[in-house]
């Protein structure tokens, strides 16, 4: 389909926005009036620039407070419209968005509104232009698509049609602010549907205008069902642009080239979802993006940690104390392979990077298909330096820069393991660890929503477990993306507000969590082997005992083993942590019981404070458990 | 009065919070349970630490979901309470906050709630403790202070009383969510009012729980009338702590020592406001802070710009082109004095600072009283290097680091002008400029609300003209603080979200605006003299012509002179700008007509884009007006 984006979605000058849209592969743009007004370029130059970039100008917007006006206002409104039509001629755009009036002096008279829009359409038609009338969710009188359609019908002019915007429609359907039926859009004749604007949004209980102006998202980043909505629109016969109109405070200040790619990815994923709708599949002549389906993911092949001269040996000692065996060395790079159960960790001391999770490798049923899909969804491919006899690992960059590898560990010949000279074998899991449960990645402030869409679209993971909690140094937002069966879990977290210089612990820690079948056995064994485990304050266990009627023996074991605890309606979560290596890496051991599928977010502030206490010059280190290099 | 602060107001570990509260001069704290649970210190150690800092522990909070419980839950709730009472004994705190239940299984039965709270009070009384029951604005059934008071009355136990929190009371009074009458609190017997929590907030149309958890402010930073509220509380005979409980996403991640000073300033200012309430003044035995009243301010004495080797000469040439005369040199520092009409600008090339507004000097009726007031309100005093025969200028630091001087230009002997050797005289204002209209200061992200309170409390300025607009590189928030007659106006602005590395124009520009009586004469004269004025796109004037039915001659003059325009119900605003000097300084010339008291915020995005176009490598400089060093 024709993919467009409103310039208001992106940051920068009009030139920045147009260039970014074109670079991301958009076919057209909506020119947001304020962007044009502030631009140093004439309409003719904007037109030439767009043409040179291969961008059509699909819409000029918005034209406000037109209909339902008293006669004197109407005269002024028509004069204002004529000026804008002249400008549109110069720009080479034939459709203008007229949004329903919010002016306090608007007259509540549908016949008058219809008549005035008819007049406006008549003026537009003389220049070969069209009026796309849109109900704002907060319009003074017209605030549902049904109402705007009724007025368009009464206005009865070939140059008068409807613009539907998923936010305005679904925000009202969603919050019960007004009776509206998105599915009913399918009954509008296609030739009367002039324009389609798409935006997603998180569910928020707030003033709808503020919700719209600050919190819209690209499709797939929020809670709206845009595939169903768009299917209803396509059922009318509408074949115009799929055009994004997203007002978002973060995107407004993010790098526009990057936001434009994020936006394009959202449309490709939406088109793919449309292709799965039976109503759409039966229709001819709808060109939709059809990326390769996401192959099944069955777990983590490995996780790679970049380490430096200090953290590398410390991490190696910690892994050994946790029961990992150092079983291999990379053929051409300074990379160690450690294994325990099915958990494999690479320690890479070859880069310039500070200690961090540098790569995640997922086990995929079809690495090549995973790579093709990633490419189709605009994931940046990473070049790999490759030695002889080394596997051609395909990797893409996640929004936070983490490398994502697609692997099939068992595959003959091409397996990634053949890159390693095996020098040992994994032990018998003396500490009960079985596999990697999840990887937790701190997201840069600007890319949290981009990351959600990336993992959802590129890897086929589902966003779950949204959380927000008051950490000791500021509010933190969390979200997990998981393979449906929970075999690949990535926990994303980031600050709700970008932090200032004062904040300690920047960059935010990342961690690797390993699953165990017996949390207390793991803790005791690791402690006995000298693992540098994090100690938790007694206050935490006193509160746990006050809040929950736990078995006193279990509570005592938790206190002894410094295990944190959470439960929900379906299960329980036990977890403990190591100290931090380098600036930001720690390890976690978790045990899930019942159907618990969360990440113990409720305990994160306690864990963060405990990490801080260990690292702070004023923190008490006396209660620390025996640490590396010490006998237990 | 006894001034307290809840630990939840501040960022950091419990230790950070306690130390910051004590350093700012608080008498006591509320221990927020989560802060204690995460702390490595035992209750006894926290108690000792507080005692050592001179802090009483006034409240332990919160205890949730107690009343209206089924029998089995009640058994567990009492067990939970006993555990907390034990902890409170160890901490040495005798009052616990019990907030109204939000649990979905709460029973709607006031008699039951009263009976259960009576039982809880009985348990507390055995240990000499008290229950302060508070209605959360979003409580399941109890969500007004009246309802909580009714239950406390029915509960009828000497150890059962009320906690009132200004947010929970005023948020409901303000948004019409429920019938409540803050003034009625005055009828509660003082001995039943166990605790007072204070928070301000901006008016926001959103879910009250989210409003409370993220957007509370210290008194004087928001829209609530806390003086009237607190007066009603004091009328009961309540003489307990004035205790701040503010949940704010920005404060949660700001430096705690600084936030604690901001908090203390808010209480001092509130006490001063209480002292002006007739009902309070008539009462004996209320100790209130009484800082010296703010002396009248009558304008700007001068504004000092820090300049570097490049921007200094450019600014000097620009000032000359704008009609300023270089009339003096500082006796001991590399500071030039420039004057035009009553506008005086110092160019200080002696510091390490990048080009910026470094100081503002206000004309005060009593510099010494202004300084005493600033000190009483915790404004950081700045040491001054002083040469012989130099005036002892008193200066304090504003939250953004700008120095604020208190001056009386006409004063005999001690006037700041005597620090300068006068080498010339001001010209006859050939460019019609009369005085400094306002100074616009970019506020660091974390200190916007602190700045509001600082200027309001320290200088006696009123916050006005809140604005929020989509600038080309992100959302910007604005607020002015002004002397009632408009003789001192400071326009504060800052980004709504802290910007990332991508954003251009960081640090955000500041500017100095000079008033003229004839905007077009000023523009033409300055242009003729070669001032480096900023050019505005034609698109802006085309839109102005479309939107407003302006006199074509006036519109033509605006276009010719690159003057921007705004109007409101009472007046008009004309303004034009210079280019940027150094990284962040520009000058503005403004003309106000009628009662217009704003700052043309509607035009800021256009101005910002124009500045960007001049500075950007891809921007068009061809339409720039004749610049410095060029003949017109």
UniProtKB/TrEMBL annotation, chains A, B:
Mg(2+) binds at residues 438, 511, 588. Pfam families: AP_endonuc_2, Glyoxalase, Glyoxalase_5. The keyword Metal-binding applies. A divalent metal cation binds at residues 134, 165, 197, 245. Its cofactor is a divalent metal cation. Pathway: Aromatic compound metabolism; 3,4-dihydroxybenzoate biosynthesis. Its EC number is 4.2.1.118. It comes from the Bacteria. Keywords: Dioxygenase, Lyase, Metal-binding, Oxidoreductase, Pyruvate. GO terms for molecular function: 3-dehydroshikimate dehydratase activity; dioxygenase activity; metal ion binding. It catalyses: 3-dehydroshikimate = 3,4-dihydroxybenzoate + H2O. It is an enzyme of class 4 (lyase). GO terms for biological process: 3,4-dihydroxybenzoate biosynthetic process. InterPro entries: DSD, Glyas_Bleomycin-R_OHBP_Dase, Glyas_Fos-R_dOase_dom, IolE/XylAMocC-like, VOC_core, Xyl_isomerase-like_sf, Xyl_isomerase-like_TIM-brl. Belongs to the bacterial two-domain DSD family. PANTHER family: HYDROXYPYRUVATE ISOMERASE, XYLOSE ISOMERASE-LIKE TIM BARREL DOMAIN-CONTAINING PROTEIN. Catalyzes the conversion of 3-dehydroshikimate to protocatechuate (3,4-dihydroxybenzoate), a common intermediate of quinate and shikimate degradation pathways. This is 3-dehydroshikimate dehydratase. It comes from Prauserella marina. The lineage of its organism: Bacteria, Bacillati, Actinomycetota, Actinomycetes, Pseudonocardiales.
């Amino acid at each position: 389909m024709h993919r467009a984006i409103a310039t208001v979605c992106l940051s920068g000058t009009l030139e920045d926005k147009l260039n970014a849209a074109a670079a991301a592969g958009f076919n057209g743009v909506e020119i947001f009036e304020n962007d044009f007004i502030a631009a140093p370029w004439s309409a003719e130059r904007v037109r030439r620039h767009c043409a040179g970039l291969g961008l059509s100008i699909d819409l000029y917007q918005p034209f406000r407070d037109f209909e339902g006006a008293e006669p004197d206002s109407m005269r002024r409104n028509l004069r204002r419209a004529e000026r804008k039509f002249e400008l549109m001629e110069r720009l080479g755009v034939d459709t203008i968005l007229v949004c329903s009036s919010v002016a306090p002096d608007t007259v509540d008279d549908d016949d008058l509104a219809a008549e005035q829009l008819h007049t406006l359409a008549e003026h537009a038609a003389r220049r070969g232009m069209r009026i796309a009338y849109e109900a704002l969710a907060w319009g003074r009188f017209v605030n549902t698509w049904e109402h705007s359609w009724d007025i368009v019908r009464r206005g009865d002019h070939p140059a008068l049609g409807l613009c539907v915007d998923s936010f305005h429609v679904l925000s009202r359907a969603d919050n019960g602010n007004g009776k509206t039926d998105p599915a009913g859009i399918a009954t509008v004749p296609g030739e009367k549907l002039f324009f389609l604007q798409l935006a997603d949004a998180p569910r928020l209980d707030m003033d709808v205008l503020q919700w719209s102006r600050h919190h819209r998202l690209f499709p797939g980043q929020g809670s709206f069902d845009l595939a169903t909505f768009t299917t209803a629109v396509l059922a009318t016969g509408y074949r115009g642009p799929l055009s994004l109109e997203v007002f978002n405070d973060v995107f407004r200040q993010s790098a526009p080239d990057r936001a434009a790619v994020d936006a394009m990815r959202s449309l490709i994923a939406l088109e793919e979802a449309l292709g799965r709708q039976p109503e759409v599949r039966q229709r001819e002549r709808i060109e939709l993006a059809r990326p390769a389906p996401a192959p099944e993911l069955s777990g983590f092949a490995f996780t790679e940690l970049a380490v430096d001269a200090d953290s590398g040996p410390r991490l190696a000692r910690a892994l050994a104390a946790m029961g990992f065996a150092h079983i291999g060395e990379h053929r051409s790079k300074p990379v160690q392979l450690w294994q325990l159960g099915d958990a494999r960790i690479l320690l890479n001391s070859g880069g310039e990077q500070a200690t961090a999770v540098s790569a995640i490798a997922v086990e995929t049923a079809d690495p090549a298909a995973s790579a093709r899909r990633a490419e189709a969804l605009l994931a940046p491919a990473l070049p790999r330096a490759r030695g002889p006899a080394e596997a051609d690992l395909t990797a893409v960059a996640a929004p936070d820069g983490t490398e994502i590898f697609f692997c099939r560990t068992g595959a003959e010949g091409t397996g990634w393991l053949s890159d390693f000279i095996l020098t040992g074998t994994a032990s018998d899991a003396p500490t009960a660890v079985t596999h990697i449960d999840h990887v937790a990645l701190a997201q840069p402030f600007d890319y949290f929503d981009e990351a959600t869409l990336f993992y959802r679209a590129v890897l086929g993971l589902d966003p779950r477990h949204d959380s927000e909690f008051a950490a000791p140094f500021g509010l933190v937002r969390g979200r997990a993306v998981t393979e449906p069966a929970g075999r690949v879990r990535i926990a994303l977290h980031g600050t709700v507000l970008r932090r200032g210089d004062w904040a300690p612990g920047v960059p935010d820690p990342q961690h690797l969590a390993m699953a165990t079948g017996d949390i207390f056995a793991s803790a005791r064994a690791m402690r006995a082997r000298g693992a540098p485990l994090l100690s938790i304050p007694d206050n935490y266990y006193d509160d746990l005992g006050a809040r929950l009627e736990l078995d006193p023996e279990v509570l005592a074991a938790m206190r002894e083993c410094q295990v944190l605890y959470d439960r929900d309606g379906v299960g329980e979560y036990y977890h403990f942590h190591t100290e931090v290596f380098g600036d930001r890496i720690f390890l976690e051991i978790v045990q899930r019981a019942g159907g618990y599928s969360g990440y113990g977010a409720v305990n994160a502030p306690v864990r963060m404070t405990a990490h801080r206490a260990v690292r702070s010059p004023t923190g008490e280190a006396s209660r620390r458990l025996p640490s590396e290099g010490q006998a237990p």
